[in-house]
Specification:
The complex is a heterodimer of chains A (about 210) and B (about 120). Chain A has about 210 residues and is mostly helical. Chain A contains 11 helices and 4 strands, in the order H-H-H-H-H-E-E-H-H-H-H-E-E-H-H. The chains are: A mainly alpha (about 210), B alpha+beta (about 120).
Chain lengths: ~210, ~120
Amino acid sequence: MAQDHDHRHDHHHNAPPSDTAMRVKALETLLSEKGLVDSSAIDAVIELYETKIGPRNGAAVVARAWCDPDYKARLLKNGSEAIAELGFQGVQGEDMLVVENTDSVHNIVVCTLCSCYPWPTLGLPPVWYKSAPYRSKVVRDPRGVLEEFGVELPESVEIRVWDSNAELRYLVLPQRPAGTDEMTEDQLAELVTRDSMIGTGLVEAPTS
Amino acid sequence: MPLLTRDIVGGLVAGGASCRMDADVVPKFKAGDKVVTRNINPASHTRLPRYVRGKRGTITHDHGIFAFPDTSADSGTHSDPQHVYSVRFEGEELWGKDANANACLYIDMFDSYLEPAES
């Protein structure tokens, strides 16, 4: 946790800290006291994931794949290498598999054993991705989970659930929405949501 | 001197730490092979979730050779290198008649988790 407490946000200072906050504090104190980590290194990690590494990286990958068929072919063949072409690589993205949504296949990603997630392209996972209800239900009833996210797909579309239980990390390549032919790569990247790259959402064309 | 200092964070995060191993290991399976997962229930670490134990699936891709977490977790070093495959399981195989229509599951499986299925 950052040493400099940020007081711009709104919370009650008299409320007891959550169990997670307590556990993190205890772990950080132990690691510091044993001389294993420098607390400014923890700040550096947080800074990195707050400002540099997040789903905008994945969106750039998706937009490039939509605009450049050769890049898309490389991306589907060797995800890690093609993603590294755009400068995204490293921890939790060492061995990437990019799975493509089509008119007949929809992919959705989970880690049933913990919270494995492709950090270089999507950043840190949202809370619901790590929650037991999502992890246990999506393998058994993916259509029900999709419905909870407001996505309804016909039975003719095969749902593929990818359990990233071990070595591979998965990025969903969502379908490019219709009516976006005139848009630039940068404009397209703006449309791509985090959830569409996990598979719990679809990319929508701009409404105006 | 702490092991983790501010100046090495960037390099560590960008470098990553793949469990891929440079070893000469013959794969036991190839894409298209029918397999059945072992029904093992170790008290120690495993990446074989309960819901796929003892189930029949099909190898779709061989991703190469990785350290085996079940033994690496114990030894503390990358050990027992073996092939990791994508294995596809049909919804009904995992969930019976309660399965969603036209849904399936893909998961990373190590050689040690798999046996050939009689076709």
